[in-house]
Specification:
About 40% of the residues lie in helices and about 20% in strands. It is of the alpha/beta class and about 575 residues long. Strands 16, 17, 18, 19, 20, 21, 22 and 23 form an eight-stranded antiparallel beta sheet that branches. It has a six-stranded mixed beta sheet with strand order 1-5-4-2-3-6, sandwiched between helices. The model has no long low-confidence stretch (mean pLDDT about 95).
Length: about 575
């Protein structure tokens, strides 16, 4: 029955998907390959709180104009029922067909009588979050697949608060999408006609300067970069960060910036970095070589939609990439220590991190009397904490938030991670310590000396296709049924199941309710202060292992982290 259904869908698309000639050519090329046809049609890309993400191509399980149109029609139906009249902001990054998908979404919204503000050129994801609130929109659409390989694209949906859409609203939009026939129920207007009618409007360029004003307002030590002699190499990894990152650094006085030429201009093929992810060393190879050549103090790398940033710092024997945790730890310590010293730290300050982010942050926040809130993985949960403070008139209490996957935010002007403000603060921090005779590498080591060597490592395991999704589900199910009593010989003393909302203290034999939204995450706390967390990605076909080891020296902690990882791979059947 399933094979007949897939074949029917295939034939329906071959007949109707004629607006994009690439799709018809692709369908014809795979017509005789049952596996390829099945992969394209065995399911629909699922719309969730992260929107859509998938391989670009033909079919219901691919990113294409028909999936984008249908999704947008569902969103339009939701907005009209919820608000009556509505406006939507749309932007996109350098992904293949991203501008095309953005304009197709605009056509659908305009045909439904919904006002659209669309960017003329690619912009960072945090800018879209800013546009939603600045232009008083009820929703926002960002066409991006973040740091995925070039074959992917995606569609992120935002609420009127500038946060990624909530679980409840995403569920309602999903229900509306299901009611829409992909070829017969989508309303469309010609893009140029939409412009002429005023229903589609290009975003005025002045708004981006307003955004940069808000970013610059987050400086901690004003003018510290001027005359600091800081030498920076920057790569936007062929993405959306190039203009605004360079503009903000110029504003604060960073004059010596060398951009990696091969990765400067937008290119959705990412030919020099197949995995355009600042977490991956290979993506930064060209930047590291250029840093060696020019003698840079610091390498900055923003991902394609410029909401995440990775860095490499100069040491006595070359350059060392810092992890997302390490950069966040340095920024948290810098922001809290300097704001306390210069009297700008608010009363009852609040910082936010995700549950998989370094426990070392807890120690830093304790030192400076800062409340630390732990939330589920996903920056929207940090955004929700800011929103909650804002509703109580206490948004000034928020000082900093970050997640281990290289996402950071200071300030409340957006509700998403922002590599533009993070790049600014990283350079400011480097200049500050440089003027005090220290490198960022030396500062990181001094933090470890003070608090202990907390080593955090994330391991990712990919599971492509239909069989992969099933295998991921089985791994999580088996782990729930057979929880480990130890990891690498170290006793598990506490567990947390965020799907069942239950935390257990195995030593005290007690249970308590976890007051967070349900999420498919399993956590194991170890007797020596370490931890292991297992979580399927919400946006990619991956299972992720988050490891924490604690040692008296870096070498001891690294060796222990290796052992934890190997043992968990064995326990999950991945070796």
């Amino acid at each position: 029955m399933g094979e007949i259904n897939v074949k029917n869908k295939f034939n329906l698309w071959l007949e109707n998907a004629v607006d994009d000639s690439d799709l018809i050519a692709e369908l014809k090329s795979v017509a005789d390959d049952e596996n390829e046809v099945y992969e394209r049609f065995y399911r629909e890309l699922e719309f969730g709180t992260a929107g859509l993400r998938g391989v670009i191509g033909a079919g219901t399980n691919r990113m294409n104009i028909y999936v984008v149109r249908r999704t947008t029609q569902g969103l339009a139906n939701f907005l009209k029922k919820k608000y009556g009249e509505a406006a939507v902001a749309i932007s996109y990054d350098s992904r293949i067909k991203a501008d095309y998908f953005a304009q197709e979404a605009a056509r659908v919204l305009a045909a439904n009588g919904i006002k659209v503000y669309i960017s003329r050129e690619l912009q960072p994801t945090p800018v879209l979050s800013f546009l939603v609130r600045e232009l008083k929109c009820k929703s926002g659409i960002m066409v991006t697949a973040s740091h995925n390989p070039a074959k992917y694209n995606g569609y992120k949906c935002y609420g009127e608060d500038g946060c990624q859409m909530t679980d409840v609203n995403a569920g309602t939009v999903y229900d509306e999408i299901q009611k829409v026939d992909i070829f017969n129920d989508v309303k469309l207007v010609d893009f140029e006609e939409g412009i002429k009618s005023g229903l589609i409007e290009w975003v005025d360029e002045s708004v981006y300067e307003t955004y940069l004003d808000n970013v610059q307002a987050q400086t901690v030590n004003k003018d510290i970069c001027k005359n600091a002699g800081l030498k920076v190499v920057y790569t936007p990894l062929n993405g959306a960060g190039n203009k605004l990152v360079r503009k903000i650094l110029a504003r604060i006085g960073v004059e010596d910036i060398t951009v990696v030429p091969e990765q400067e201009n937008p290119d959705g093929n990412f030919t020099t970095c197949p995995y355009p992810n600042p977490e991956i060393r290979e993506a930064l190879d060209l930047g590291l070589k250029l840093s060696e050549k020019v003698g840079a103090d610091l390498l900055l790398a923003t991902d394609p939609d410029s909401d995440r940033v990775g860095i490499a710092v100069k040491t006595d024997d070359g350059y060392r990439l810092l992890t997302g945790n390490e950069t966040g730890i340095l920024l948290m310590d810098y922001v809290l220590s300097c704001r306390k010293a210069n009297g700008t730290l608010p009363k009852k300050p609040v910082a936010v991190k995700t549950i998989v982010t370094s426990k070392l942050v807890e120690r830093i926040c304790e030192k400076y009397g800062c409340e630390l809130r732990n939330v589920l993985t996903g920056f929207k949960y940090i955004g929700e904490q800011i929103l909650g403070l804002e509703k109580n008139g206490e948004e000034s209490r928020y000082v900093f938030g970050f997640e281990e996957s290289y996402g950071y935010l200071a300030g409340t002007y957006v509700r998403d991670k922002d590599a533009v403000v993070a790049s600014m603060l990283i350079c400011e921090m480097a200049a500050y310590y440089r003027k005090n005779g220290k490198s960022l590498y030396e500062v990181m080591n001094s933090v470890y000396e003070e608090y202990g060597y907390y080593i955090n490592r994330t391991l990712s395991f990919e599971f492509e296709g239909a069989s992969g999704m099933e295998k991921m589900a089985n791994i999580m199910s088996n782990l729930r049924d057979n929880p480990p009593a130890e990891v690498s010989g170290i006793e598990v003393v506490a567990t947390a199941d965020y799907k069942l909302s239950v935390a257990k203290d195995l030593k005290a034999d007690t249970e308590e309710v976890i007051n967070l939204p349900k999420s498919n995450v399993l956590s194991y706390s170890l007797a020596d202060g370490g931890a292991v967390i297992v979580r399927p990605s919400g946006t990619e076909p991956k299972i992720k292992l988050y490891l924490t080891s604690v040692g008296k020296t870096r070498e001891e902690s690294l060796a222990l982290c290796d052992k934890l990882g190997k043992d968990m791979e064995t326990k999950l059947g991945l070796l």
